[in-house]
Fold these 3 entries.
Entry 1:
Amino acid sequence: MKCIAVYTSSFEMFSDIYEQVIKTPLKENEEKVIEGITVSESGEVPQNYIDKMKTKPEVVVMKVKDSDITILQHRDVFEIFLPENEKVVMS
């Protein structure tokens, strides 16, 4: 799964820019600033990383309705996991 990291601890800020983030084309390891928040394409992440993170009590797990997108929030970062077949603009 592809991972996009969004560096903020504010759920409100994250949800305000979420749609823009997943529509922004990013190359691997590329960073962009969207509305003052740093967003980074973190490359491929194995499923076992996601499964391991889901078991930690300090990690909030969110699923996007009607898609296979998973979002993990921990500390000051939201990680958006996009399956390869998800129709998102990516480079």
Note: Residues 86-91 have pLDDT under 50 and may be disordered.
Entry 2:
Amino acid sequence: MQFDNKTIRKIMKKYKEDFEALEEYDKTHELLFQRKRIDITLSVGTINKLKKLKEKTGKPVSVLIEEKLKNV
């Protein structure tokens, strides 16, 4: 099946994020939506704030951190 340039541009525009994710996977062999466990060191005060926020919102700490970093 062959596509004309107009159809190719339309597909590329519609699925731009998917193509970018695949391109990133080709470079890093990691998908952007994959999750990884890491160890970090935080102050006791920060940990307590995160726990309170977790109880208040009902969201896991990892989700709270990811949401905050999306805006950076």
Note: The first helix runs from residue 5 to 14.
Entry 3:
Amino acid sequence: MKSERRVAGRKEVEGILISDLTSITNYSVIAKTGRIVNASTSGFLVEISRRDLVPKTLRQNLNLESLLGQQVALYLPQMNLDLDGTVSRTTHVGKGVFAVAIDFSFEVPEYWRACLVDLLPMPGEMR
């Protein structure tokens, strides 16, 4: 599956808590929790600790490539907001932490994505 390459400025964010990263593709919870570390109008990057992965098969691997192309949904408890999109990239960044890039669904209007990115706090802004 070839994905469209979008170019958008990334914003480093405060580490917004996410919960229940769920595969819409196969209706299963992938991770109990994680945090958004940067975002743009095209998508966002979530860091997930191995201990927060729910499927045993994912916890036992050093890669999450099986998630590529899956449609996912997640919840931002601090904002009482559900987000959805498609997993476009996964990387093991070390020490049991994975980075999962998620592209917003095409149905989400660009102005809404831009507003969301503006609302996400930059590092140090929440102290």
Note: The chain is about 10% helix and 45% strand.
